[in-house]
């Protein structure tokens, strides 16, 4: 076939579609069309056409000039017009001198963008993304020249006469090339011979040929695929048996590799590569050596892959022998009835390159936005590990490859091979790339490949009976040849993981906020935030309980057989505990020509997505005792763990029971299940399995010395025991006679983080004899609301006195009934006479502390009158002695304490009820902020809102089911959230009626108001976290810090934490405690406190058990201070010292502290104060003269050592030492 070319410097040696990249320049319209409807340049046995002479080029040039003359300035070209550089031809307009209104065409384009691409901004983002993931045309000429030279070499290879396999391989060995024999390798007794003849045809196939290449992640670049059609003379009709075809194929590939390495015109690095370590699918990878030659295509970031193919019309191997039901492996001489579907499918792949090239080209020409939609799908897949290459891919997709995404698009547009398309409506050919992408996500999210096989539409009948595919493959997606199954050998769990990610993406696209970024821009392969539980498994010493030689041959390698059976066993063992599980590993690296043995992964990651309602189940129920066969299978799978049990309902069933020491360990049961299966069925001991979740759990429990104390003295601890104690107190308060308290108690509102399960540590009661380092007694805070009554005085000071009287009466009655061992009326420090300033503190007989306040609705009315007076009569009484600012402060305190506080508590408690892991996440985040000395600057309610965001708006991840996953996502959120540009919208109250596990949308009207308000205050850097009840984030959602340094510091710490988390899990060397270790190098000074007198020291991340039995430096006099005095509720001298230092040195230094047992107070001096200044009286800080200055203008500077000496004096008895970093 002849083909005229416009540019005679184009590569005319490679078979390509007409719409090519720069390898083949643009063709003119008079090209010849092949019978299959695809424009090609045949470089097969007949060579390539040299008819494109310089004369043709001159004619073409004149044609181009005529074309340019015919175009009039200002004319708009057709949508398909493409310029010489591969871009669209734009009309030339006169230079505008002023802004003009949009034209009718521009208005139409804007409307189409909104209709077809979800929004104009979304379309602009897509348009900006696509050029970044496609090859740069300017770097391609050297690649074209290299392909030209490569074609010359391959088309002139000399034949090699037939020889026995090992003898032929020995000859190649002398040339530095080994043959990549697949299993079972040929032996000296082999009865077949191998030979070589030059390729019958050479074609460019794959994405490059159709100009739809996408650059991969992790520096892999893109691939240019060459398919060499092996001549039929090197095979015979029996080569389908016992891997003889693959042996001859391997020899053929080795001969090609040797020829390329010996070439004098090309300088290429040549290696073998085999997807998933399966040598049956091996190919050559050619990479450039950076030598600056004309064929050095290093800048293009491309790799050339050479695949071997068969022509189905000339191949001597009968296709009927390759159906899924045929048995083509003979492990023993008598084994002929064992089907080999995966083996047969690997052989059928050799027939696909040309057919797939034509199919993809057909899709591209008939679907308007096919290239763009395919690019989006490939980018989406790369970001989630559904690709052939990368540092972490989902097992099975290395074999599926990238071309499957094109066939998936084609299937959804053109339908299947059935007569009817069923209930599925096909996608339109004229849809935009976004609409096609969305259609694919919808299909993947709802299609069950296990029960509903997919057959691509083809012109002819199916090559094999359709029933054979689903009966021999767990999942089926048949290509346009009607023979090849893309999903052969792919574990079903990997496809279910794909389905989950597609559903999540579809949900994210239904929301406006961050849809583009979460869908296409974020790398979601990181283990900490993707899975609820992760196990790093070393498989070097694996010893399967039952390993079939047939399985190894069927799957192509021992590792593939192992991972396939491992995936199946884990899914069966977990059952409903996990909704999804996946095996992840790095892609197989290339192999050298001297040693083609594949490098199999030494370790794998097992990721689990748990069902929170089922994961902590203690018993796995098996079949009833009456079903003997099922019981035998159950016992065979579970081994010694299986036992026959009678249950309360009388049923007798096989079962497996998992013993747990406490409630906190129950979420670790799925990890125990997987570890048991790995050890029992695969011989992988626990020392070869690394799990991370228990290390996070250990940060939320007190030290063993304290936890063992309570059972020893018969005292219950924990939230349940605290609730029981509170219930008794509330009942007693309600029973108080009206003669004592004239109003009846209508409601008790909890406002304690202990009761909403977000306190870092479970509540512990007071027990006599505890050392001083564990004497802290947390308070359970509640609000008492009495019935509405006109008898409340309309005087704020009188109301506070009446509250004192009520609380005193309640205290007396509780003490008299024996429901309180200790009672006290606490007055708030620095409170004025008009604000709520008193509370009741009591300790129950079980040792728990309760703090109660009284809510009076009249207070808010009176305070509002004073803040915004309506007339002259409403003035602030002189006896109050307060300013208007103090009144405003009192009103804000009242609303925060009695209105927003209970609302927040109820909403957070509801979130905890919907997703039980939320509480663990919040506790870990508080622990993390405290360990990094930042929690004193962030209200705990703000932390709870921040954590609620990742549960209510999970975005591209889905709702986490474990605390450490939620923690990782909060850390990632803090790292990525640009708080200076946008607020965080938390639909906390909208979620009340939402279905558990579903994303909740913040009300749009309130969101717009918040965004508008935020833009007005842009520049006031800090966190703004809005809720429906508090849109401006003024109550709990604002973190500004001194000069906005705190939010910036949190972001820096989050970035460092995320880097350590992700890299630590990648390497398998994550030390969880190190995540909660804070470096002190950046501080000017560090105050070290004595642990032995710190009541909360037992909560320290690095608690020293020696402090339990002795004081500082072995001094036992302070070890039981708690015994000598009455218990004090919320007594924390370290926190009190920290608060005093903040107050006294507010303008001098900034202090940092960990409230959870921290023994260090770090500080930095105010840089403005450290500067030299002219001396003046009452400067507000300790200063000293500056030496060598003008005496007429004496200057002073901060006397840092004097300040530290003052601090040491203030903390006498508590401070161990102060380290000053000058």
General description of the model:
- This protein is of the alpha+beta class.
- It contains 37 helices and 32 strands.
- A five-stranded mixed sheet has the order 3-4-7-6-5, with helices on both faces. Strands 8-12-13-11-17 form a five-stranded antiparallel sheet. Strands 18-19-22-21-20 form a five-stranded mixed sheet, sandwiched between helices.
- The longest helix has 31 residues, at 884-914.
- 44% of the residues are buried.
Index terms:
1222 residues, alpha+beta, five-stranded antiparallel β-sheet
**Rg on CA atoms, Å:** 37 Å
Kindly report the average pLDDT value: 84
Work out the strand percent. Answer: 5-15%
Shape: elongated
Number of strands: 32
Question: For this entry, what is the oligomeric state of its chains?
Answer: single chain
Q: Could you give a short account of the major beta sheet?
A: 5 strands, mixed
**Which class of secondary structure composition applies to the elements?**
alpha+beta
Termini distance?
Answer: 83 Å
* Poorly predicted parts: 1-97, 1111-1124
Q: Strand order, main sheet: write it out.
A: 3-4-7-6-5
Helicity level, as a percent range?
25-40%
Enumerate how many helices there are, as a single number.
37
